[in-house]
Specification:
alpha/beta; Rossmann fold; 2 domains; 8 helices; disordered C terminus
Amino acid sequence: MNSILSARDLTMVRDGKQILDIGELNVDQGEVVAVVGPNGAGKSSLLLTLALLEKATSGTIRLFGEIAGNGNLLALRRRIALVFQDALLLDTTVKRNVTVPMRIRGIPPQEANTRADKWLNQFGIAELSSRRARHLSGGEAQRTSLARAFALEPEILFLDEPFSALDYPTRKSLLLELGQILKQMRLTTVFVTHDYTEIPYFSENVAVLYNGRIIRRGSVREIFGDEILERKICVPWDM
């Protein structure tokens, strides 16, 4: 398969400290890759750099066959979507939170409304479309954030620990729903988490990040063994 996203010799240094040192990372079309590691491993920095929202100190990022540079960053960003741990909603209605980013990207109003209705329904919050974001629960806000991302019809989806702040029932429900959607759509996804138990819901492919370096890359079974599928093991972060 062809890589839709790749990074080569990627480094990031902040205040004299090396945050990332990635020799090579490839993500194929339709692949869902879980980037897992302890807090402070550099996971969010890696995701934001791959999504062209943070600048690496050195190295090359290639998206859709193009090397990312100053001349094409905006065009490349318009082909991706991100969901963060915090929903980052506007102080307006749920539906406008979904339609505004589409309008910014030049999608006509009628199509934006149609897409918004589709994804609000898909994530079970169509009845909340006129509610203001400030009145949403954590789960409702994150469902809105997911609907907003999917309505953009991205070619790559980046997820930065979007469930870590949710209570267990809400978290499990969203994990199940999103996992099914990703399998049906075969949407290329990079999913960052410090919780290895979330991986089986989404991905068969794992990159283990430790101290800014990818120390292991492979299938779930190759990395953790069959036990992770039953979520009964502890990840040896001191490996």
